[in-house]
From TrEMBL:
Annotated Gene3D superfamilies: D-Amino Acid Oxidase, subunit A, domain 2 (3.30.9.10), FAD/NAD(P)-binding domain (3.50.50.60)
Swiss-Prot/TrEMBL keywords: Oxidoreductase
Origin superkingdom: Bacteria
A Pfam family assignment: DAO
EC number(s) on file: 1.-.-.-
Name this protein carries in UniProt: NAD(P)/FAD-dependent oxidoreductase
FAD dependent oxidoreductase domain ranges (all copies): 29-379
Entry's Gene Ontology molecular function annotations: oxidoreductase activity
Keyword DNA damage: no
InterPro entries found in the cross-reference section: FAD-dep_OxRdtase, FAD/NAD-bd_sf
Length: 423
């Protein structure tokens, strides 16, 4: 079984006994493909609803983005409330935001219910990289209050930034008390243990090679087969390996993170006084937070080709030192990367074809939305699909260009917006 890629998260992971590979044929009510947040949540909720469940993971639990991401719990959807109102109208926008805003409660509830040790902290600060971004944030907070009576978000002016981030490059920001951050791999492992306790059979090192959807769903691996009444595809960037049509709905984006040496409580408090997670408003954003042992975990820069930079700390360091010049030359203990599934319009891609459900394309909002998505999938299996349909009815389309040109066209578009950031 392949080990986790080196990272601060892998080095500080909670104990979890590896699960066996699938061998032979297994029958159950629900088969889930993917051992990240979405798959684990769907499996756990389905088991609690009385279904017998098998979960197949190609590598290890949390091996993909769920175990490597920035750990940021960002409320809402990638689209602003203003975007949702313009596209869908006030009533539909309100319903979507009310549903999406349940996600934070669901994550915290799971952590508390199962005693998951994942360094949960509250608060998320979106830092305005331009004055125009701050003006848009002001309108957003007003609209959220008008639509939902949402009281957790507040505007911070430029003079108040230092109470949130020890950096001089921002023009203000939006602080949301309902956001937060956590240790992403330990959250995934905690969900996996909760699923095992609920009766889910988890198989690692069991890559799905084919999915058949007929009278029953059948998933084939190299050494076994699972036959079930329902299937769930929760593979994110690997979706195209088993369903090319769904795979074209998202594009993998490589993100890179570093973790510094422990900085000590005084230095850490000067960088992020509230201890909240921080992300800026650039298109190619910087995002960062403090670990439980006062390391700065910083993500910056993106690559649109699969090959990682030869030296990840050297790749990320300029972004880190631009935000925090006082950390110039700071020792970096860990550097790692991974792929995030991004949809064409940055909205999650959920749906159902026959008896097979799918959920992917979280576009940077996966820490919260995935846990909620698993709950909605389990509801739909039981015949109550109203809330599932709210997200499944969101628009989506494949990336243009077909099999050969979709990635070059995507790269060109992303580079254009990255250039606008710099200009």
């Amino acid at each position: 079984m392949q080990p986790y890629p080196p990272s601060f998260y892998a080095a500080s992971a909670n104990p979890f006994t590896p699960r066996p590979s699938l061998a032979g044929e297994v029958r159950c009510d629900v088969v889930v493909v993917g051992g990240g947040y979405a798959g684990l949540s769907a499996a756990l909720h389905a088991a609690e609803a009385g279904f017998s469940v098998v979960l197949l993971e190609a590598e290890r639990i949390g091996f993909g983005a769920s175990g490597r991401n920035g750990g940021q719990m960002i409320p809402g959807l990638r689209w602003s409330a203003a975007d949702l109102v313009q596209k869908f109208g006030r009533d539909s926008a309100r319903s979507l935001l009310q549903l999406a805003n349940l996600a934070g409660d669901r994550v915290r509830s799971r952590i508390n219910r199962h005693g998951i040790a994942c360094d949960l902290k509250s608060g998320h600060f979106q830092a305005a990289a331009k004055p125009s971004h701050l003006e848009a944030m002001k309108r957003e907070v007003e609209l959220l209050h008008d639509l939902l009576g949402y009281e957790s978000a507040r505007i911070v002016d430029r003079a108040g930034v230092q109470a949130y981030v020890g950096s001089a490059i921002y023009y203000g920001g939006l602080y949301d008390a309902d956001g937060g951050h956590l240790h992403p791999l330990n959250y995934a492992l905690g969900l996996a243990q909760a699923a095992l306790d609920a009766g889910v059979r988890i198989f690692e090192d069991s890559r799905a090679r084919a999915v058949e959807d007929g009278a029953r769903v059948a998933v084939t691996t190299d050494s076994g087969r699972v036959v079930a009444d329902f299937g769930v595809l929760a593979c994110d960037t690997a979706m195209g390996e088993i369903d090319p049509q769904l795979g074209r709905m998202t594009m993998p984006v490589a993100n890179y993170n570093v973790a510094t040496v422990p900085l000590g409580p005084d230095v850490a408090a000067a960088l992020i006084p509230t201890g909240a997670a921080v992300a800026d408003s650039r298109f190619v954003l910087n995002y960062y937070r403090l670990s439980a042992d006062n390391r700065l975990i910083f993500g910056g820069g993106e690559k649109y080709t699969p090959a990682p930079p030869p030296d990840i700390p050297a790749f990320v360091r300029p972004y880190l030192e631009q935000v925090f010049p006082q950390l110039a030359g700071v020792q970096i203990d860990y550097g790692w990367g991974g792929l995030v599934g991004v949809s064409f319009n940055r909205l999650p891609q959920m749906g159902r074809r026959g008896n097979v459900f799918h959920a992917h394309g979280w576009s940077g909002h996966g820490v919260l939305l995935t846990t909620l998505a698993g709950e909605l999938i389990a509801e739909a299996m039981r015949g109550t699909a109203e809330r599932f349909d709210l997200l499944a009815d969101l628009p989506g389309k494949p990336f243009p260009g077909g099999r050969l040109l979709c990635h070059p066209l995507y790269v060109a578009g992303m580079l254009y917006y990255a250039l606008k950031d710099r200009l």
